[in-house]
Hints:
The protein has one domain: 3-Layer(aba) Sandwich (Glutaredoxin), CATH 3.40.30. The chain is 44% helix and 17% strand. The chain has helices at 2-26, 77-91, 108-119, 134-142, 177-181, 197-220, 225-238, and strands at residues 37-40, 50-51, 63-69, 97-104, 127-132, 155-162, 168-170, 192-193. Strands 1, 2, 3, 4, 5, 6, 7 and 8 form an 8-stranded mixed sheet that branches. Strand 3, helix 2 and strand 4 (97-104) form a beta-alpha-beta unit. The longest helix has 25 residues, at 2-26. It starts with a helix and ends with a helix.
Amino acid sequence: MKKQRFKRNAVLGILFFLPVLFLLFLYPSSHNYEPLNIVNENVKELNNFDSYTDNNIQLKDHITVLGFFGHQPKDHTIAALNLKELVYDKFKGFKKFQVVIVMPIGTEAEVKTLKTKVNNYEEVKFWHYVFGTPTQIKGLYESLKTNSNLSENLSTEDIFIVDKDLNQRGRIDDRTKRELESNKPYYSLFSYNCIDIDAIKNKMSEDMRILFTEYRQKRKGDFDSSQRRANDLNKNDEQ
């Protein structure tokens, strides 16, 4: 009996301390922290897009991971599962976090099949599908900063980070430490490829962690967001 009680208490202790350890990892000490760059402003809002629910899905006031799966959403099952397991599951407990996948009107039935695979018998309440016309989808995509175009079926494997103020986040200079030491030409990171496990698991996960840290500092009154926005965009224009 004592042995069973000990095992039960040990399991409860582990379940209690794991979230605490994750939070400690999520919020690094201030001297190692540099906010995530603003690479673009004024991302279009999701006005007049439809959804499965009566809720008005919006980007404003949310930290959003934004994707485009086009006319054949089932073709993006691997991308969706990578996003679910490597990003959504890690950050779903944080306030105002959401994943929004943009789809053309008419794909609702096929999206239900994809939704079943993504949900995997658990509630995915902060993951939304919205539906718009080709003109609406292209307009939204064109408001993002990117090095690639949507495919003819209005899809891309790239996903984007949009903050609460409709700013697109990324890395103005994405060079590695070795590339910096070698004085390689700079290149930017505006989006993250869902098929590239390394990009999602390491780069995007790290950038989301940094962005949540920024908003934590804002709540504490320790962050000057207006100055940060100006510095990021000026640096981008200069380079």
